[in-house]
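Researcher: Quick test of sequence recovery. Tokens follow.
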């Protein structure tokens, strides 16, 4: 039989917020390293020609996602915080 109760584990939610934040930081770091490697390949290995031109365009597109994962993960952490606050606000009327 299904239950009508909703149980929210605050500690788990908070831990997931921290996890998302750390993952975002690590992903941003990986993207920055990836961009650096691509630029080295373009500057030292494929300096001229069509492939170099296309690689340059690709690098510019990759730069657009640089530091985006951190922003998204911080937003996730903030939303978790607001969710828990809202649950606590509604909870005081029930218990």
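Model:
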């Amino acid at each position: 039989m299904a239950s009508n109760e909703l149980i929210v584990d605050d500690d788990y939610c908070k831990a997931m917020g921290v996890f998302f934040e750390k993952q975002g930081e690590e992903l941003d770091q990986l993207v920055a390293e990836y961009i650096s490697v691509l630029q080295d390949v373009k500057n030292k290995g494929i300096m001229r020609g069509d492939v170099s031109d296309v690689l340059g365009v690709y690098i510019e597109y990759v730069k657009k996602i640089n530091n985006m994962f951190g922003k998204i993960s911080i937003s996730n952490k903030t939303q978790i915080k607001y969710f828990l606050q809202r649950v606590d606000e509604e909870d005081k009327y029930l218990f």
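The two ends are 24 Å apart (CA to CA).
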